[in-house]
Design goal:
heterodimer; A: 198 residues; alpha/beta; Rossmann fold; 8-stranded mixed beta sheet; B: 377 residues; Rna Polymerase Sigma Factor, Chain: A; globular
Chain lengths: 198, 377
């Protein structure tokens, strides 16, 4: 399983209710339901992936986070997970708002556009960066709103969103991000994983 | 339909209070089963049929000698795998395949009931079929499933008996019959009732049959089961066994010939009064209204796992109406899965060979059955 999912599952307390937004083919959902005995739901936009999830008996509905989150009542989940999809939304601000409405706690993972490889690509090649976590060309990318760990950190602070914990992922290496090492971690992390609360 | 007496049937002795206020008792409910009930009695699935279906979901229907209506889905190795599950399917009350309906004989007059049969609802159909659980001594069904009117029965069943099915599969249906749905049904009923052979519903006595009206009703309904794209691809403007237009009103086009054929074979297997009663039951179906305008309340405290399926080209029970059910369930935190299957086969998709649809159901049922048995879910 992806390192990212291991970090996410450590955030989640046992026997809690979880919504995985953009759950893909349900790998994280399966892991959580086997190991944490959680009551878990998924929302996924791709028909193919939804069918895969349902074939595994997972409670996943086909839908898109920008339109279909509104059907979930306030604070109806202990955790809402958004793994590496924030950058693909038309209106990420509104999605975050909705996630914080639906979930008591929200886990957001972002591919870090501040990683040194990304910066070097642009600086030396003068081309839009293409990396492991950002494998698209500029013309076919679904990523409309790329941001850095620092950007998202500031985004939360400016809106009074509590950041409980921030984890940096660089390859297999997991480390904590604190205010003191934020600029450095923004340079060396491939992924940033945020645990948020309204 | 002469050998109706030989069908499997249970006599329901308990009084059933119908929504119209009348009470019925000692009435027959015809059913068929496929596969075997296991020792734990935890593998039973109750399948509800649609408007013109019957208890013969699989195999060969002994009355019509045609394949069962859900042959793609029910049978050995199929999604509703009869090697694994015990499938029960009953003819709805109001139907014409052995269950209590307008064709039943009134013991007082010794004549068919005709329009003296009480107006029934989806709720009445479901309450009648609930007796099958007692009949088979099944404490809890593994699943209830059905498409179209069968899906409506699934919703009503779970609402009436929240603790009696672990899984519910309402397919291509709605929680509330729309004005368009009612309009098409009314068109069908008017076609039947305008046929001079209908005789105010007493055609059985008069030994006539409103075949023309019933055929037109079927033709109109059949169009609503298909998509525009599907029709265009299958028939286009192709001519029927002729090289040019004949400047008359014969079936010049293949689509005309096809519809006429659909109408003509339908009258051989279906009763006109049953068509009136069952379409009426569908029109009266409004689960949302039953719960004061809040559909979520219909499923309050449900522990049932829902899997809702719609089809992209179904304009009779469109995705939006299926999604309304999903939304109502999510509002109360119910366990619900939903997918819209891509197909150009229209509303009829649930009855046809749509591999994506069939394989997803098969996998879902298998996984969920073993998960429940392992007590993981």
């Amino acid at each position: 399983m992806k390192e990212e999912f291991k970090v996410i599952s450590k955030f989640i307390e046992e026997k809690s209710r979880v919504l995985d937004v953009g759950c893909g083919d349900g790998v994280l959902m399966e892991f959580l339901s086997k190991n944490k005995v959680v009551d878990i739901r998924g929302l996924e936009i791709s028909k193919e992936k939804v069918k895969k999830c349902l074939s595994k008996g997972l409670a996943v509905i086909e839908g898109d986070a920008e339109n279909d989150l509104k059907q979930f009542p306030d604070l109806s989940f202990d955790y809402v997970i958004l793994s590496q999809t924030l950058q693909a939304f038309m209106n990420p601000e509104k999605v975050i708002e909705n996630l914080l409405r639906v979930g008591k706690k929200v886990i957001v993972t972002i591919p870090n556009f501040g990683h040194w490889k990304v910066r070097l690509d642009l600086l030396f090649k003068g081309e839009m960066p293409v990396t492991k976590n950002l494998p698209y060309q500029w013309y076919d990318t679904p990523n409309l709103h790329m941001c850095t760990i620092l950007d998202f950190y500031n985004f939360c602070n400016n809106r009074g969103i509590n950041i409980f914990k921030t984890i940096s992922l660089n390859g297999q290496t997991i480390s904590n991000i604190k205010r003191s090492n934020l600029k450095y971690k923004n340079l060396i992390s491939e992924l940033g994983i945020f645990l948020l609360e309204k | 339909m002469s050998n109706l007496n030989k069908l499997n049937s249970v006599l329901i002795k308990k009084t059933l209070k119908l929504d119209c206020g009348k009470e019925i008792s000692n009435f027959p409910l015809a059913y068929e089963t496929y596969g075997n009930l296991n020792e734990n009695k935890d593998n039973a699935i109750l399948i509800f049929h649609a408007l013109t279906g019957d208890q013969y979901a699989s195999g060969i229907n002994p009355v019509t000698n045609k394949e069962g209506w859900w042959n793609y889905a029910v049978g050995p190795g199929k999604p509703f795998d009869t090697d694994k599950f015990f499938i029960i399917c009953a003819n709805v009350i109001g139907g014409c395949m052995g269950s209590y309906g307008p064709g039943s004989i009134d013991p007082l007059t010794n004549k068919p009931l005709g329009t003296n049969f009480p107006v029934i609802t989806i709720n009445d159909m479901v309450n009648a079929q609930y007796n099958l659980l007692d009949h088979f001594k099944i404490e809890k069904l593994f699943a209830v499933a059905g498409g179209s009117m069968g899906g409506m029965q699934v919703l009503q069943f779970v609402s009436n008996f929240p603790n009696k099915a672990k899984v519910a599969l309402p397919i291509a249906c709605t929680a509330s019959h729309s004005a368009q749905n009612i309009a098409f049904n009314e068109l069908g009923r008017q076609a039947i009732m305008s046929d001079s052979n209908w005789k105010e519903g007493l055609y059985n006595e008069k030994l006539t049959n409103p075949d023309k009206g019933l055929a037109v009703a079927r033709m109109a309904a059949h169009i609503t089961y298909l998509s525009k794209q599907g029709l265009q691809e299958k028939f286009g403007r192709n001519l029927q066994e002729r090289s040019d237009l004949k400047f008359g009103f014969d079936a010049d086009f293949q689509i005309e010939s096809y519809l006429r054929y659909q109408g003509s074979v339908f009258v051989d297997r279906f009763d006109a009064n049953s068509y009136l009663y069952i379409t009426r039951a569908m029109d009266y179906f409004d689960l949302t209204k039953q719960f004061g305008g809040n559909l979520s309340k219909a499923f309050k405290n449900t522990k049932t796992k829902f899997f809702i399926i719609s089809f992209t080209s179904d304009w009779l029970y469109p995705t939006s109406e299926n999604k309304d059910i999903v939304i109502a369930l999510n509002a109360i935190g119910a366990d619900v899965g939903f997918v819209e299957i891509k197909t150009d086969k229209g509303h009829d998709s649930f009855l046809l060979d749509v591999p994506d649809f069939l394989s997803t159901i098969k996998n879902y049922l298998n996984t969920t059955y073993s998960n429940i048995n392992e007590r993981r879910i």
